[in-house]
């Protein structure tokens, strides 16, 4: 339904059929794979020490997976490769090592798969502060897009989502390899806790509302930009957007890209002028094109400039402000995105020159990205930590231990399709922690965390069944997978909840990513709903109840009722109608007569960046009203939210939708809101409420009230609404 299955050669999936393979067939396939691997090992003896790849080579394993799969590099029009090789000495050696890595973990295979799923729409609404245009605003309101925080770092205050989108041209193996290269170098430069990086397909660029949800657009295709797409990019610039062009023909009026074949894929000396007027000299790989003045009038240039140290002083880097709303582009014809080990670099001398300038290459990239408003303060990815099994009530501990004793295997492990949990009495450093194998410590006495206070959680949890058994981690891949092996077996009175301080692979709607920095309340709650019940017949309401529970958990506290926290259909938590600070993800499984529902929820409590948090609202309220409301903690708000959710579910089961809709409408942002059906040119309608299944109802110009559904884009579910066909 979300177009998440992609097939090669433009094939369109029409039907999915499950096939049961007999044990004999499975064994034959396994033996066949083992024989092939043995043949590869026989043909490629153990490498010598001299042929070991350089450390820099191994930083780009993803690009070498194409070799493992038997694919050859795709030659572009300019002779460049669509992937990046391991470098010298990888013939034979790289194949053995990478083949083993690929077969044993498939980690790179998963990365390759994720990067090719174009239907994600790539700019997730899970982290999008939807910022509608204020027709009453002035230029002064948007003049200063970037301000400094207390530590002097640049902070995004434009309201744009923390998304970096990459347009790589037509879908091909070459563009995929180029995306991997460009994404890798930018991920090394920016704070990846503050931004998510997605490819943007031509279809999505023309169809979806990406421009409101993009902090930076990177254009890194060597292909000519189609006219309709160029107009989209120019419109984004005119709205205050930022563009980085990397060896692309994209340019602005007043400039033209001119070919100089003598420079093509040669190493040249570049002088780069920074914003503070200092200069950086480095060796770069030239694309063979330069920027020259062209038709369209003289453009005022920004401070960032880069020219070659040759007689013509050819310009390879230009900064071009655009329009009155702060739009600007930095255009580059030096291959700053390519490492010295790129296949384009053939000569050893060229490799040495580029390698000696590698640190300065990153310096120039960070200067460009910082000028375009991004935060380039680098932070190391946190290491995974063990889980802790914690009871919210003492009396539940003994029954829980008895249940575990009956369900773990002889090694203390419970396995699921997504990961395995190994229950241990204590954790030692020799116990390995991987995304697919996590230790769970059962000794409560050894638990101590600065970020989660079990007593505070217990004090604020007032439920009969929900949130009673906690799986807690300081750092985990995603809480959405932690309950997978337990959810169908554990008694309902032992309500499971997974809580993490930070996630490294947070999930959002569709295949979107979810940013999970420190200070964000991150949890996944297990809820069981009978099929033949009020809520069981209206499962879409679960996401509405959860987002409503977050808002009510705050605004039901005396003196906090005026904190402007609201819900946005279908699953977002907002500050007023201005900026998003949380969202909900629901996965449901029907087994027999029961829905087993995992409700993932994340909302910003004390993390002011990259967008806004609840404590920001409290601080602002105190300032405006001379109040002294206390800030929140993540542990108390998670517990309060679960408590409110259980009450809302009970009310819904007793009274149906009418039991909770008055409270939902009190807090939602859509009263009287106008939207357009089908796109920007569609008919205008007015939102009037929710139907009996939880979908939006709108009133058309003729007065008729109809139900509308999202069109499937994951940028903004209120864009491009459609009226479903009647069956």
TrEMBL record:
Listed GO MF terms: biotin--[biotin carboxyl-carrier protein] ligase activity
Compositional bias annotation for Basic and acidic residues: 49-67
Keywords: Ligase
Bias kind Polar residues: ranges: 32-46
Keyword Magnesium: no
Region feature (Disordered): 30-91
Protein name as catalogued: Biotin--protein ligase
Any single GO CC term annotated in Swiss-Prot or TrEMBL for this entry: cytoplasm
Similarity comment: family membership: Belongs to the biotin--protein ligase family.
UniProt domain BPL/LPL catalytic: residue ranges: 455-653
């Amino acid at each position: 339904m979300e177009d998440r299955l992609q097939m090669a050669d433009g094939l369109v999936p029409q039907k999915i059929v499950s096939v049961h393979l007999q044990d004999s067939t499975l064994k034959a396939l396994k033996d066949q794979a083992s024989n092939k691997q043995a043949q590869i090992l026989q043909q490629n003896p153990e490498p010598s020490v001299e042929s070991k790849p350089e450390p820099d080579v191994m930083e780009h394993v993803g690009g070498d997976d194409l070799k493992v799969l038997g694919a050859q590099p795709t030659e572009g029009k300019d002779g460049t490769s669509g992937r990046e090789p391991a470098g010298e000495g990888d013939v034979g050696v790289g194949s053995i090592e990478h083949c083993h890595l690929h077969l044993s973990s498939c980690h790179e295979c998963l990365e390759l798969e994720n990067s090719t799923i174009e239907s994600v729409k790539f700019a997730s609404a899970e982290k999008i502060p939807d910022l509608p245009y204020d027709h009453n605003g002035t230029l002064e309101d948007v003049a200063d897009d970037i301000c400094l925080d207390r530590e002097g770092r640049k902070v995004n205050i434009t309201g744009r989502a923390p998304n970096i989108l990459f347009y790589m041209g037509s879908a091909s193996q070459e563009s995929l390899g180029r995306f991997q290269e460009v994404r890798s170098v930018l991920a090394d430069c920016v704070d990846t806790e503050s931004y998510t990086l997605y490819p943007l397909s031509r279809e999505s660029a023309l169809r979806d509302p990406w421009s409101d949800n993009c902090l930076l657009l990177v254009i890194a295709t060597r292909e000519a930009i189609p006219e309709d797409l160029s107009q989209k990019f120019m419109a984004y610039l005119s709205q205050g957007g930022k563009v980085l062009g990397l060896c692309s023909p994209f340019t602005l009026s007043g400039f033209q890209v001119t070919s100089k074949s003598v420079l093509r894929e040669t190493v040249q000396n570049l002088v780069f002028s920074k914003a503070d007027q200092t200069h950086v000299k480095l060796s770069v790989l030239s694309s063979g094109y330069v920027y020259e003045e062209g038709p369209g009038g003289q453009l005022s240039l920004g401070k960032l400039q880069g020219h070659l140290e040759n007689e013509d002083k050819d310009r390879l880097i230009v900064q071009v402000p655009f329009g009155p709303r702060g739009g600007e582009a930095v255009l580059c014809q030096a291959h700053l995105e390519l490492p010295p080990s790129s296949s384009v670099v053939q000569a050893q001398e060229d490799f040495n020159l580029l390698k000696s300038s590698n640190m300065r290459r990153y310096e120039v990239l960070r200067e460009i990205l910082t000028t375009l408003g991004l935060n380039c303060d680098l932070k190391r990815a946190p290491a995974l930590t063990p889980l802790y099994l914690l009871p919210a009530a003492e009396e539940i501990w003994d029954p829980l231990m008895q249940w575990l004793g009956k369900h773990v295997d002889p090694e203390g492990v419970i396995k699921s399709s997504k990961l395995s949990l190994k229950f241990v009495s204590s954790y030692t450093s020799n116990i390995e922690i991987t995304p697919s194998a996590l230790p769970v410590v059962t000794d409560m006495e050894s638990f101590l965390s600065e970020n989660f206070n079990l007593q505070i959680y217990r004090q604020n949890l007032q439920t009969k069944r929900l949130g009673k058994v906690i799986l807690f981690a300081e750092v985990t891949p995603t809480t959405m997978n932690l309950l997978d092996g337990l959810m169908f077996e554990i008694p309902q009175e032992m309500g499971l909840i997974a809580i993490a301080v930070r996630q490294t692979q947070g999930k959002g709607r569709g295949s979107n990513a979810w940013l999970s920095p420190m200070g964000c309340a991150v949890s996944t709650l297990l809820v069981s709903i009978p099929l033949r019940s009020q809520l069981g017949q209206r499962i879409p309401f679960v996401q509405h109840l959860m987002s409503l529970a977050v808002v009510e958990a705050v605004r039901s506290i005396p003196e906090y009722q005026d904190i402007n926290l609201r819900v946005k259909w279908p699953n977002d938590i907002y500050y007023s109608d201005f900026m998003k600070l949380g969202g909900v993800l629901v996965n449901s499984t029907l087994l027999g007569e029961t829905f087993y529902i995992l409700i993932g929820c994340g909302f910003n409590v004390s993390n002011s960046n990259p967008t806004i948090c609840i404590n920001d609202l409290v601080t602002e309220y105190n300032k405006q009203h001379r109040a002294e409301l206390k800030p929140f903690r993540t542990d108390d708000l998670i517990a309060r939210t679960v408590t409110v959710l259980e009450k809302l579910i009970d009310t819904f089961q007793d009274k149906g939708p009418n039991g909770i809709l008055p409270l939902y409408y009190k807090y939602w942002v859509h009263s009287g809101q106008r939207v357009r059906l089908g796109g920007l040119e569609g008919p205008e309608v007015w939102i009037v409420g929710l139907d009996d299944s939880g979908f939006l109802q709108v009133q058309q110009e003729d007065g008729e009230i109809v139900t509308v559904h999202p069109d499937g884009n994951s940028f903004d579910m209120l864009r491009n609404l459609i009226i479903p066909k009647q069956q």
